[in-house]
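During data preparation, a discrete fold description was generated, as reproduced here:
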Amino acid sequence: MEDGGQDEGFERFLKWAANLGISDCTTNLSLHPQSPTSCLGHSLTVSHFPDAGGRGLAAVRDIKKGELVLRVPKSVLITRDSLLKDEKLCSFVNNNTYSSLSPTQILAVCLLYEMGKGKSSWWYPYLMHLPRSYDVLASFSEFEMQALQVDDAIWTAEKAVSKAKSEWKEANSLMDALKLKPQLLTFRAWIWASATISSRALHIPWDEAGCLCPVGDLFNYAAPGEESNDLENVVHLMNASSLEDTSLSNGETTDDFIGDQPDIGLERLTDGGFDENMAAYCFYARKNYKKGTQVLLGYGTYTNLELLEHYGFLLNENPNDKVFIPLEPSMYSFISWPKVSMYIHQDGKPSFALLSALRLWATPPNQRRSTSHLVYSGSRLSVYNEISVLKWISKNCAMILSNLPTVIEEDSLLLSTINKIENFDKPTELRKLLSSGEARAFLEASDLQKGKNGSELMFSDKTKRVIERWKLAVQWRISYKKTLIDCISCCTVTINSLSSQTILAIRTK
């Protein structure tokens, strides 16, 4: 692991942070004065993790779960209150003319105003190390949105773009009144500011817009997985224990095919919060970490589409990802769980609620009342019922896949092509890679052929961002299709197993 390698500017940022009291020291700061060169070194260090989020924080010693690893004083947090200490900004923002703007819109305007100060900003060392762009859905072009292929995902992206444009237009009059620099008035600048808040802001109890937390936002994301499953198992066991009969007479009960237990709107998991007693934002280890490993922050149970929408990245293995399949309206009337709980897990297993709803739906109407308690306990009603349900799920997964414009094998080849595009720098090779199919459509949509030699524009910063968003869209749809394919496989395996058991039982009679 690298514990050096930061550029000179970043080292100045860490020194600035140390001088302001940001610390990874676990004991009283007055007893252990900070190093003049960095706010880190007692518990954490900045390192690079190419396959796990890029720059992040690594443990410089063994860290125990629950241990305090970083604290950032309230005085260093960027909030609406702290930014509005600027008299000019405060006088405009507090004008009733702009009272319709949301707290997040106000924070975005304040952030752009602060950026406009340049080196005169008190937070300049921090602001200069924020990303220059984000790949959130609101930044997607029409081509990139269509590359998602799935209607729900395209709709989500379109809604994100529409919302961002609407909020930008609403805030325009305030930004004009503040006389922001022309480059800070653009929609691109607004996307940057709103995405900075969306992807980096942390919860604080006194402002729903949240705060930006220098150094604290260097933690990379860890998807909560086992924790939420454990809680769901407890809920399922509580439900099952309240029923006298949780199995069929032949011993059939819920097996490993069920992907989870009922969704109950669990609170999002976090590994930090503002501590009033310390007057600081405090971060704690979410698990035990060995020296040299990356220390991660779990700040929510998000699907990959939600990660794209709010943070601009996705995970290859996300235990919280899910795929929804269309259900007939009548199916929702058989069960009390909400629609959002009826889905397919990333590993292809149907959710508890989806299986339960379909088991009851596949039961003759005159028998539903008498069998509902078995459904709620997670039990199979009969072999015939179970096979009918699994065939229905498999058929609908196959139907969704057949209606998409490409198959997963084509997407995988395209992803390989995109990786090559990112690495090639010879114009003739690039043009060959972009000569057919979706790659050709990308070339046309991106106007890359306007470059003098075909490579100059290809490797501009703007073009690199376009390529990265296209790549994210392809990665997302591959993950989506893989889940459906895995579900078909899971259903087929279970159907074959149940059929074999039935045949064997008949033969042994």
